[in-house]
């Protein structure tokens, strides 16, 4: 949900969701604030004791500016969700077509059942950590999930999708946003192409 909010349709009733957490910074809102949807009738124990704020669930002064910022980010995100989703899918297609020309590049995951701005690919014939270290000075990318603390480890998710350990380690996760431009896509393709080819030539 943290990744999906304001990016794809998210109907808590249709999905039968009782509890759903989300965060503002994933939709260009302020860092340090998130929300929790709780279906009526679901009982939760207090998270912080003290005052009676939040129905007795969490004591403490509410960060009003952050809450307002999150609400505005949600409003803007939902208002442009469909058109922005189409734009990001188009840019993602351009990125994928450009990266495929390198050769030995595999798409990870389903092409349609993913976030509009998400592209995860594996590169044959390169060492994962070497690839990431060479690219990071030029592009803000990851080889695993954003919350993973062990970047050198192979993603168990990619391995469950059929990639071997080396392929999972030699993967890159591209994240597009409403601020990504077509020129940046072409720049990313050029940088990755140059670095992958250079690494392969040395091996």
Query: In sequence order, what are the helices and strands, one letter per element?
Result: EEHHEEHHHEH
Overall mean pLDDT stands at 90
Helix content: 25-40%
Number of helices: 6
Rg from Cα: 20 Å
From the spread of the alpha carbons, the general shape counts as elongated
What does the largest sheet look like?
3 strands, antiparallel
Uncertain segments are none
Q: Look at the helices and sheets and give the structural class.
A: alpha+beta
Number of strands: 5
Strand arrangement within the widest β-sheet reads: 3-4-5
Portion of residues in beta strands equals 5-15%
What is the secondary structure topology, with strand pairs?
Blueprint: E1 19-23, E2 34-38, H1 64-79, H2 81-100, E3 105-107, E4 118-123, H3 128-135, H4 156-160, H5 165-169, E5 171-175, H6 182-202
Antiparallel strand pairs: 1-2, 3-4, 4-5
Helix pairs in contact: 2-6, 3-6
Descriptive account of the structure:
Helices cover 37% and strands 12% of the residues. The mean pLDDT is 90. It is α+β, with helices and mostly antiparallel strands and 203 residues long. Strands 3-4-5 form a 3-stranded antiparallel β-sheet. 22% of the residues are buried. It has helices spanning 64-79, 81-100, 128-135, 156-160, 165-169, 182-202, and strands at residues 19-23, 34-38, 105-107, 118-123, 171-175. The chain is built from 6 helices and 5 strands, in the order ββααββαααβα. The protein is elongated.
């Amino acid at each position: 949900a943290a990744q999906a909010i304001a990016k794809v349709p998210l109907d808590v009733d249709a999905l039968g969701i009782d509890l759903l957490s989300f965060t503002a910074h994933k939709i260009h809102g302020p860092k340090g604030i998130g929300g929790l949807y709780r279906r009526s009738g679901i009982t939760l124990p207090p998270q912080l004791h003290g005052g009676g704020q939040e129905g007795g669930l969490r004591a403490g002064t509410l960060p009003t500016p952050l809450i307002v910022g999150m609400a505005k980010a949600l409003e803007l995100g939902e208002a442009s969700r469909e058109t922005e989703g189409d734009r990001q899918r188009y840019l993602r297609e351009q990125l994928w077509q450009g990266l495929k020309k390198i050769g030995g590049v595999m798409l990870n995951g389903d092409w349609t059942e993913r976030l509009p701005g998400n592209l995860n690919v594996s590169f044959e014939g390169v060492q994962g950590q070497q690839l990431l270290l060479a690219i990071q000075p030029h592009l803000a990318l990851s080889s695993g999930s954003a919350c993973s603390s062990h970047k050198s480890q192979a993603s168990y998710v990619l391995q469950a999708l059929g990639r071997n350990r080396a392929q999972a380690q030699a993967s890159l996760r591209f994240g597009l946003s409403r601020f990504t431009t077509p020129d940046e896509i072409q720049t990313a393709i050029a940088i990755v192409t140059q670095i992958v080819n250079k690494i392969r030539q040395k091996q």
